[in-house]
Structure formats: C-alpha cells, structure tokens
Amino acid sequence: MKTYSFEKLIVWQKSRNLAVIINKVTKDFPKDEIFGMISQMRRCSISIASNVAEGSGRHMAKDKARFTEIAYSSALELINQLIISLDLEYVSEKNYLSIRNEIEEITFMLDSLHKSQLKGLEKV
C-alpha cells in the first residue's frame, strides 16, 4: 500500500488524532446539539487534517500555504467552539485543557509549516 506524503507529517497525524478525540468527546453532548455544536466541532476537526492532506497534493508553494492557512483557521474555530462548550458545561475543565493543549500544539506546527511553505515565495 502506498503511503502519501501527508501521512508522514506529524501535524497531519496529530490532527487525525484530534478528530477522533473530538468525535468521542462530543458523544457526551446533549442530543439537541446533534445538528449544532456536535456537527460543527466534528466537521471543523476533520477539516484541519483534510486541508493538510489536500494541500500536500498541490504543486505550487502558494497553494500548499493556502490550505495550511485554512487548516489553521479551522483549528482556531475549533478552539472557539471548545471554549463555548466549556461555558455550556458540555466538556469538563480537564477535557477542555487537554484538547486545548492538543490544538495549540497543532496550530504551532501549522504556523511553522506555513512559514516554510512561504519561504520559497520570498525569492520570487
């Protein structure tokens, strides 16, 4: 079986794991949030890993950087939703801090990846 380049990226691996964590945590949310917060948080977390994967298939550095930027934005959106979930007492303080730390690590890696992707564009 072929291994694609994005599968080797630690940021993709961590984002994939985050999507699984979010899916599990949101199972305990109130059922009336199935089309609201649950759906939004799951789509958002999947978007991070998906955009890293999609960007890896682009040939132009500018295109790769754009998808990394979208992944970063999805991570920020997920932090916002996580904060609101804490406010609504859908997640415990412990889960909040654990997930927040995961997201912060991912955003740091995405920022570094984005900067490296843009580095080649500065010379043009």
From TrEMBL:
Gene3D superfamilies: 23S rRNA-intervening sequence. This is Four helix bundle protein. Pfam families: 23S_rRNA_IVP. It comes from Flavobacterium aquariorum. CDD domains: 23S_rRNA_IVP_like. InterPro entries: 23S_rRNA-intervening_sequence, 23S_rRNA_IVS_sf.
